[in-house]
Automatic annotation (TrEMBL):
InterPro entries in UniProt: Mic10 (IPR007512)
Function: Component of the MICOS complex, a large protein complex of the mitochondrial inner membrane that plays crucial roles in the maintenance of crista junctions, inner membrane architecture, and formation of contact sites to the outer membrane.
Keyword Ligase: no
GO CC, one annotated term: MICOS complex
Subunit structure: Component of the mitochondrial contact site and cristae organizing system (MICOS) complex.
Residue stretches spanning the membrane: 23-41
Name of the featured protein: MICOS complex subunit MIC10
Top-level taxon: Eukaryota
Pfam families recorded: DUF543
Subcellular location: Mitochondrion inner membrane
Keywords: Membrane, Mitochondrion, Mitochondrion inner membrane, Transmembrane, Transmembrane helix
Protein's membrane topology: Single-pass membrane protein
Family affiliation: Belongs to the MICOS complex subunit Mic10 family.
Native species: Phaedon cochleariae
Organism phylogeny: Eukaryota, Metazoa, Ecdysozoa, Arthropoda, Hexapoda
Length: 87
């Protein structure tokens, strides 16, 4: 029999995953921005910043979905009454 997984442990694992995902995506965005800056944009700074921003934005979106899935776990959510409008 498997040991129970507590919500706190699951959240710690997800935060660790979010942090590492953010670092990787930020670094990848900076790297791509640097390449584009060197090759196409005459060594401007904005492609580097934009690439890093896109990376952080993607990591934030992934993290938000992952953490919301932990908090919104519901077994009876599919059993909505027919007269209740959905959003």
């Amino acid at each position: 029999m498997a040991a129970p997984v507590y919500v706190e442990e699951e959240l710690v694992r997800k935060w660790d995953k979010c942090f590492s995902d953010g670092l990787l995506k930020f670094g990848g965005g900076l790297a791509l921005g640097t390449v584009f800056s060197l090759l196409f944009f005459k060594r401007r700074r904005w492609p580097i910043l934009m690439g890093g921003g896109f990376g952080i934005g993607m990591a934030y979106s992934n993290c938000e979905q992952d953490l919301n899935g932990t908090f919104r776990r519901c077994d009876h959510c599919a059993d909505k009454p027919a007269d209740m409008p959905s959003k």
